[in-house]
Amino acid sequence: MELQQGNSKTVSVPGDSSSAVNKSQRIRNKSVQFDDNYVSGENPRLIYVNDPRKTNDKYEFTGNEITTSKYTVISFLPKNLFIQFHRVAYLYFLAIAVLNQLPPLAVFGRTVSLFPLLFVLCVTAVKDGYEDWRRHNSDRKENNHESLVLQSGQFQMKVWKKIRAGEVVRVRVNETIPCDMVLLATSDPSGVAYIQTMNLDGESNLKTRYARQETTTLSLFDVNGGTAVSGLIRCEQPNRNIYEFTANMEFNRQKFPLSQSNIILRGCQLKNTEWVIGVVVYAGQETKAMLNSAASPSKRSRLESYMNRETLWLSVFLFVMCAVVATGMGLWLERHKKQLDTLPYYRKIYFTNGSNNRKTYKFYGLVMEIFFSFLSSIIVFQIMIPISLYITMELVRLGQSYFMIEDKQMYDSSSDSRFQCRSLNINEDLGQIRYVFSDKTGTLTQNKMEFRRATVYGKNYGNSLHVADQSLEEASITEVVERNRWKLKSEINVDIELVELLHKDLAGNERIAAHEFFLTLAACNTVIPIVTQCSSSSSTMSELDEPVGSIDYQGESPDEQALVSAASAYGYTLIERTSGHIVIDVNGEKQRLDVLGLHEFDSVRKRMSVVVRYPDNSVKVLVKGADTSMFNILAKEVRKSDQNEDPVTDDVRYITQSHVTEYSLQGLRTLAVASRNLTDEELEEWQCSYKEAGTSLTDRSTKLRHTASLIECDLNLLGATGVEDKLQDGVPEAIESLRQAGMKVWVLTGDKQETAISIGLSCKLLTPEMHQIVINGNSENECRNLLAEARIKYGVKTADYRSKNLKRKKNVENEYLEIPDDITTSKASERHPVKVSILNNTPLALIIDGNSLVYILEKDLEIDLFELATACKVVLCCRVAPLQKAGIVDLIKSRTDDMTLAIGDGANDVSMIQMADVGVGISGQEGRQAVMASDFAMGQFRFLKRLLLVHGHWNYHRVGYLVLYNFYRNAVFVLMLFWYILSTAFSTTSALTDWSSMFYSVIYTSVPTIVVGILDKNLSHKTLLKFPKLYCAGHRQESYNMQLFWLTMADTLWQSLVVFYIPFFIYKDSSIDIWSLGSLWTISVVVLVNIHLAMDIQRWVFITHAATWGSILITYICMVIVDSIPVFPNYWTIYHLARSATYWLTILLITVLALLPRFIFKVMYQIFWPSDIQIAREAEILRRRRPKHLKTKVDKESS
Amino acid sequence: MNTEMASSSGGTGSTDPSAPRRHSKRPKYSRFTQQELPACKPILTPQWVISAFTLISFIFIPIGVASLLASRNVVEIVYRYETDCIPINLRGDKVGYIQSTLDKNCIKMITVPKRMKHPIYVYYQLDNFYQNHRRYVKSRSDTQLRDKKKENDTSSCEPEESNGGSPIVPCGLVAWSLFNDTYSFSIKNEPLAVNKNDISWKSDRDSKFGKDVFPKNFQNGTLKGGATLNESIPLSKQEDLIVWMRTAALPTFRKLYGRIEVDLQANEVINVTLENNYNTYSFNGKKKLVLSTTSWLGGKNDFLGIAYLTVGGLCFFLALSFTVVYLVKPRKLGDPSYLSWNRNPAGH
């Protein structure tokens, strides 16, 4: 993630005055992450320590019982049904079923019509019930855990569900923490406790939490003595922000602040600490863990929304058909008005000698009859609206996800993580991505930091480090290493020159600076050293008086870990850290530094500082931070005061600055290190302010920032570090492929400009010949000018033209953008002189920083930025806040129809991931926040290439075809019914049996579409990866668009006419009965739609064969079974039919004639207008058959 | 500890023989999961397209010829009589005539145009009679027809479910409207036997219509719909009813009346005595008497043959034209220069 992200993982920066207010508010409304209201001091929650009764007196806080289950035995049925009927599809089913229950409308048998709905409802209910039963079980297990709770002066076991807020709980090592607790005491006298937050955020490293010194001793004493402990905690109302906690505590008339480091959260585990005692502040559902368990908002795929548009058209068709039937009915009745009483099939009144004699029979008057016939035709034509398609699509996506998850080439062995599909709704969106927004750290880079360079007191070290010949230096290095009694987990190369300097006597400015430099690196951080003694290896070095210890540094920021490890390599080993002091082993000599205060890193100051008291009682503030924020607060009068003594001091600053620039050009992350002595007065002033700020409940971060500024000034620069952030494997190649595939890759990073540019260069995002447009303005006007200037200089078109253009289809315009940088580029731009926004054909790169974005995103400059950015090939945004990332995604999303994808790994990417159409999380080292919010998660950035180019392509084409085919499949059936109804006096008779009508979309034709939707592949993954431009088919919406829909519908019309009229004419003057003809129609349409599908299948595996031909077979089996039940009027029909030759000839004729136009069309299209996919497919298949010399030729040509 | 484990397994990869860390999430390789199952990937090469069309035409044209010949060999006599059989003076009020108790017999002559081989099927054909009307089709009770014990199962039979409180067997509009014209034939005063046995489906007689179910309370209402049934014959033997109950699919339909088991010679004159009882006049329905021989395809219908010939011919034409197209303007399959980004961008 970001530079020194350390403790500032809070996703939103509440007090960040510089963040765009309007924008962030807008985003806040959109994403779950941000709508917490951080409760200030207005309405604090009062917790009386060890007095649950008083705590819960006024307001009953939630107990610690949790229920993740949704239902109870009684509420299951109504609640489950209620939830299920939230789906529109089910309501449609229900409406149809209810309509069918009305006597005048009973088109189908009443029970038969209920069957599909009941089936779906039952399956879902059973599934839900089972899941809920499992949740019940796990809840029960969870609630019946036991913990030690202070009860009448003694710690006694108590089940979790009985624990209440205000109680004092004791947790032992490796136990799970039952609820959110404020630490009172730990087994460590200094009040440190280590916890693992794996269950909460997935981070496996240990985190430190502290009990306040004030409570540590007291409570220890009291608890052991059995005396009641008492105190009062005022804390904020429960919220889901796991990185923040604001409270204060009154204890023995002392008032002191509590912060995030004083609370341990439910679900975490206690590690390396024998026991802790804490007071429960939030329990049960109010714990942060439970509040966080809400799922991320679900997204809907683009194709699905298009599909809904076409579904509307289908409903129009449905309406028209029903209207035709109703009108026909009306006209027919009108014409036969006088005969209604005597018509054998339509009698108005009873003519029987009974109670009913001459009463009206089932005739409700002309208007009502028309109305009823309208309704009953809706029932008959119900599958025109392809409700089953939604279920089919879900199954298909499930299958597709299975194959994505199982893809071996998207498995990351280094983190042992598979690909994950967290959202099942947007598989096909992966095939249409236009914009990729990527985080840098941890996404493009490995986030494994390596200490590379250092500049100390104006001297550059580490230059020769990477070239240093190990054998040459070995002697001295081993000497150093041997003296170093602390073994680290990772090896670090050291600069011999610097090591030598450090072994000189502590004299001279340079030497002292180096000493302080490393002391700062070792001390100014939040890393926890975990020392393990290993006696075995000490035997060889028995001359040393101490056994060799191995140290594992646990920290939240990889930068800090790298720096501490580096300091250790140079002999400054951090071996102990508590809230009160730090112990550092300086070349074998232990130094204890008292920590007086610590200002943690925050994204506004961009630095952290620690105030320490040396053993010699001098007090210093040690600071490290981003160089931009550091150089402003360095001592300015150095030259004046120390002119004579040290003429180089001021130069140090400039030299260091130039070194820092050099480092960042190399792609290193730089930090400046500085220190300063504090006088007693300064110390006192700061201590007052620090205490006050620390205890305040409101605006604490602002106050702390203010306090920090008291001492973070007039610093002496010691040097700077350069840490390498290694690129992940295959990133440049992946980016190149994505770009060729017509995607624009934007990098949004919190790093500074130079670092961003250098990483951009190293991952081939930027190329040296690109024109770099740099926008970093500090005011609105400056930004406006910069933007306008860039636009004039590079000829970006004006707003009206673009915005008009954008609202239209962007196909043409986008095409030019993706043309590769070879000859075609110039050709293309010559041909489209108006469209090209670039003056001289040089690709543009836009680099913009967070400060400018504050002004731009907030103001009307958004459009300017949008136009400029879309004209550029590459956009790099540096130093952006999390919400700005989302803002940029929104910039594109709200102005174009293009699909956006955001990829990131850290909590700061969550907003962007949720904002983008597709969010991808990297399951890396920075916890699981991003993964939890994402739709897809994977181990490495480079998998993105495979995900989009291969799986995205496949899924898009599969689902696109699936939708069209399902529209066709249902429509051809409905139209066939419709034509028949026209020759039944509009009486909505169906020649098909009820069973056939019901089974048609469920059994007869559903399996092949699902199989094809999951398994069909138009191209192999090799071809797709080799020609990334094939991805553009998705951009052009080749598989699903309006035109295809209308073509399909025209084809459907033709096919339905053939299916209906061929048997109609063949059996016109014959003695065929309704069930035989119905049976013929059924089998014809089933054969037809299956052969139609077979014609479009691109890849036949045995499953496809089984599904397609099996469906026809199953249809026959079903018909034989239904026709063998004597009580149905259609008894024995199929046996009679199958004996006649006409029957078989009719089926053959229908199939051939119906599919002929489609086939001709397909062949013509492939001859005269072959699509890219078609050509690539031919090349792929024919290459295997062709001799080798041709093969190589093709390869050459294609490359 | 997690990172350590992962890195070591990552470093050595899957070749790591040490078993303890075998809980890797690495997907297991199989051709199925990697979507690499052996597959047939058809593409439409010119050869393929042309041979497909040729094949279709080679299959379709012979079938077309055969069916057309078969249809042409069928001899069919259709005689429309609903108007002919009403005395000229009464034709002004056809409905009144048919509902009256006047004698409905009418005798007509039919000339056999060509030699007709036995069996000659005798059909009656009704036009404009919607036996497929939803209310009509559903107005029957199949359980009642099958089973004597279920004779009260008449709920679906409205409005003909019961009469005077007791159920009608067979109930419903379909049975009620049973066709009741009768035909008898004679040649030169020699009666021509019409075999009325085995005109219905055997399956219907055996399983659908009960052997112990007898007509009951049938056509006892105020309005008679059609034929009456002999109450002493079980339903399974009432073949006219069984044929009638197989409701027709289309508003114009034929139903088998009987079979003539002798050959008829060309130019023979048949005397037909029609008993014109059935009321189709109220809805302008036509009535026809049909005598027809049969072929392997059934009755006389040229449509099938013509359709087959047309499709076959069309496919032959297509095969030819595609051959020409491929010869004139061949496109090298799989040639990358046709790819859109290699082609002239303006051409797109």
Automatic annotation (TrEMBL), chain A:
<dbReference type="GO" id="GO:0140326">
    <property type="term" value="F:ATPase-coupled intramembrane lipid transporter activity"/>
</dbReference>
<feature type="binding site">
    <location>
        <position position="751"/>
    </location>
    <ligand>
        <name>ATP</name>
    </ligand>
</feature>
<dbReference type="Pfam" id="PF16212">
    <property type="entry name" value="PhoLip_ATPase_C"/>
</dbReference>
<feature type="binding site">
    <location>
        <position position="441"/>
    </location>
    <ligand>
        <name>Mg(2+)</name>
    </ligand>
</feature>
<dbReference type="GO" id="GO:0045332">
    <property type="term" value="P:phospholipid translocation"/>
</dbReference>
<dbReference type="GO" id="GO:0016887">
    <property type="term" value="F:ATP hydrolysis activity"/>
</dbReference>
<feature type="transmembrane region" description="Helical">
    <location>
        <begin position="370"/>
        <end position="391"/>
    </location>
</feature>
<keyword id="KW-0812">Transmembrane</keyword>
<dbReference type="GO" id="GO:0000287">
    <property type="term" value="F:magnesium ion binding"/>
</dbReference>
<dbReference type="InterPro" id="IPR023298">
    <property type="entry name" value="ATPase_P-typ_TM_dom_sf"/>
</dbReference>
<dbReference type="InterPro" id="IPR018303">
    <property type="entry name" value="ATPase_P-typ_P_site"/>
</dbReference>
<dbReference type="Pfam" id="PF16209">
    <property type="entry name" value="PhoLip_ATPase_N"/>
</dbReference>
<feature type="transmembrane region" description="Helical">
    <location>
        <begin position="312"/>
        <end position="333"/>
    </location>
</feature>
<dbReference type="InterPro" id="IPR023214">
    <property type="entry name" value="HAD_sf"/>
</dbReference>
<dbReference type="InterPro" id="IPR044492">
    <property type="entry name" value="P_typ_ATPase_HD_dom"/>
</dbReference>
<dbReference type="InterPro" id="IPR006539">
    <property type="entry name" value="P-type_ATPase_IV"/>
</dbReference>
<keyword id="KW-1133">Transmembrane helix</keyword>
<feature type="binding site">
    <location>
        <position position="560"/>
    </location>
    <ligand>
        <name>ATP</name>
    </ligand>
</feature>
<dbReference type="InterPro" id="IPR008250">
    <property type="entry name" value="ATPase_P-typ_transduc_dom_A_sf"/>
</dbReference>
<feature type="binding site">
    <location>
        <position position="439"/>
    </location>
    <ligand>
        <name>ATP</name>
    </ligand>
</feature>
<feature type="transmembrane region" description="Helical">
    <location>
        <begin position="1044"/>
        <end position="1066"/>
    </location>
</feature>
<feature type="binding site">
    <location>
        <position position="440"/>
    </location>
    <ligand>
        <name>ATP</name>
    </ligand>
</feature>
Automatic annotation (TrEMBL), chain B:
<feature type="compositionally biased region" description="Basic and acidic residues">
    <location>
        <begin position="140"/>
        <end position="153"/>
    </location>
</feature>
<keyword id="KW-0812">Transmembrane</keyword>
<dbReference type="GO" id="GO:0005783">
    <property type="term" value="C:endoplasmic reticulum"/>
</dbReference>
<feature type="region of interest" description="Disordered">
    <location>
        <begin position="140"/>
        <end position="165"/>
    </location>
</feature>
<feature type="compositionally biased region" description="Basic residues">
    <location>
        <begin position="20"/>
        <end position="29"/>
    </location>
</feature>
<dbReference type="Pfam" id="PF03381">
    <property type="entry name" value="CDC50"/>
</dbReference>
<dbReference type="GO" id="GO:0005886">
    <property type="term" value="C:plasma membrane"/>
</dbReference>
<dbReference type="GO" id="GO:0005794">
    <property type="term" value="C:Golgi apparatus"/>
</dbReference>
<feature type="transmembrane region" description="Helical">
    <location>
        <begin position="306"/>
        <end position="328"/>
    </location>
</feature>
<feature type="region of interest" description="Disordered">
    <location>
        <begin position="1"/>
        <end position="31"/>
    </location>
</feature>
<comment type="similarity">
    <text>Belongs to the CDC50/LEM3 family.</text>
</comment>
<keyword id="KW-0472">Membrane</keyword>
<feature type="transmembrane region" description="Helical">
    <location>
        <begin position="48"/>
        <end position="70"/>
    </location>
</feature>
<dbReference type="InterPro" id="IPR005045">
    <property type="entry name" value="CDC50/LEM3_fam"/>
</dbReference>
<keyword id="KW-1133">Transmembrane helix</keyword>
<protein>
    <recommendedName>
        <fullName>ALA-interacting subunit</fullName>
    </recommendedName>
</protein>
